[in-house]
Structures are given as structure tokens and as C-alpha cells.
């Protein structure tokens, strides 16, 4: 499970260089969701998935742009099969937005950055009303 780090300013990265992500350990996803002080967007992905790789720089940008609003977490479904099964992941990438430890939105497939941000904001505003 990876938490995307938002501590450095955004800069275009060389697509051939590996993605840097802050790794933190949690006993399980439920623990992370319960301890988070803001909504959590979970990206269920696999390294062999083309659309998942397309989303890597987009998720890094969204993590930086929405740092005050949402925490982005990436879960490799090949390494964490139990978590993928728990959330019935059938397609990749699958995104689940959690608030207060509960899922409030779920969608599959790659999205452009602005559409992803709009989807998150829309889900959070609907959930708050």
C-alpha cells in the first residue's frame, strides 16, 4: 500500500524514471481509513495494467492539487489480493473514495486529471449535503 507524498512541489517527471511515493505501513486498509483526518481516494491498480500506468502522473498531480482535501493511496492488487477481494475489484484501475472510513463513490477506468478532480469534488459535496 502506498501513500503518495505531497511534500515537494510538483514538477514534470521524466517518464522513464520511477515514480516516487511515500511508503507507510498500516496493519490494514481499515486502519488507514479510520485514522485519516480527510477523505481517502484509493487507487486499486496492477503494474501490468496500461491504464493504471497512465494514471500514475495524474494521481501525483491530483494528490498535490487536492492535498488539503483528499489523501491518495495506491494499492497493488497483485500484492494485496485480500484487500482487492474485500472490495470486489473486478477491473483496473478501480477507484474508491472513502469518507469517515466508508465508501462514498466508486468508479473504474482512467480519467483525465480535471475529470478526476471534478468527480472527487462532486462526490464530496453530494455526501456533505
From TrEMBL:
Basic and acidic residues: compositionally biased ranges: 11-22
InterPro entries attached to this UniProt entry: Thioredoxin, Thioredoxin-like_sf, Thioredoxin_CS, Thioredoxin_domain
Keywords for this protein: Disulfide bond, Electron transport, Redox-active center, Transit peptide, Transport
Region feature Disordered, mapped onto this chain: 1-22
CDD domains on file: TRX_family
Thioredoxin domain residues: 8-125
SUPFAM superfamilies, per the entry: Thioredoxin-like
Lineage: superkingdom: Eukaryota
An MF annotation (GO) of this entry: protein-disulfide reductase activity
GO cellular component, one term: cytoplasm
Keyword Transport: yes
The UniProt record lists the keyword Transport: yes
Pfam families: Thioredoxin
PANTHER family found in the cross-reference section: GEO12009P1, THIOREDOXIN Y1, CHLOROPLASTIC
Protein name per Swiss-Prot or TrEMBL: Thioredoxin domain-containing protein
Organism of derivation: Linum tenue
Amino acid at each position: 500500500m502506498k501513500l503518495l507524498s505531497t511534500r515537494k512541489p510538483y514538477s514534470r517527471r521524466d517518464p522513464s524514471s520511477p515514480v516516487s511515493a511515500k511508503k507507510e505501513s498500516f496493519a490494514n486498509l481499515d486502519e488507514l481509513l479510520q485514522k485519516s483526518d480527510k477523505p481517502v481516494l484509493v487507487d486499486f491498480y496492477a503494474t501490468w495494467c496500461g491504464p493504471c500506468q497512465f494514471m500514475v502522473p495524474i494521481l501525483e498531480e491530483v494528490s498535490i492539487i487536492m492535498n488539503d482535501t483528499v489523501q491518495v493511496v495506491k494499492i497493488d492488487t497483485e500484492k494485496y489480493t485480500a484487500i482487492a477481494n474485500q472490495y470486489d475489484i473486478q477491473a483496473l484501475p478501480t477507484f474508491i473514495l472513502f469518507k469517515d472510513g466508508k465508501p462514498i463513490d466508486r468508479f473504474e477506468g482512467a480519467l483525465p486529471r480535471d475529470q478526476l478532480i471534478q468527480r472527487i469534488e462532486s462526490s464530496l459535496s453530494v455526501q456533505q449535503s
